[in-house]
Amino acid sequence: MNTKIKRLTDIKSAQSFIDAGLGFHKACALVHKLIIESRQSEPGLIRPSKPRLISQTPSDEEIKKYQEATELYNTAIKQHNSARDKTDVISRKVWDIIEEMMKQEAGFYDIPEKYQMKAYRFAYDYGHSSGYPEIYCYLCDIVEIFS
To answer: How far is residue 46's CA from residue 127's CA, in Å, rounded to a whole number?
Structure first.
């Protein structure tokens, strides 16, 4: 299968997956893989190690080195948090698109509007611990009741 989706930023809508010929389960697997790859490829996303004092009774020189290392650590952790937050925003937008695709494929919009939120909440409550594919299965079962 030739897919045009190589990075998270290539995903603009649920239509991106449909145009690429991906079904819901393959789209979930691809997004999960892309999120992991993007987190590993960003150097700022590797959490820095916190400095430690080696001896229980440190000398003045060791304390000074520790203070300098702590300042460097604090700067690095701020950069790490900023990079992680940017990635999380992109990831959340992409998972929102996956959620929309899941609803479309499951036939969620065929459920009467007054029951849609209850149906989705039920599917989410029972399936979220296993991920979107499990929510999808519950949602398909619920949609079947309404048809």
So the answer is: 30
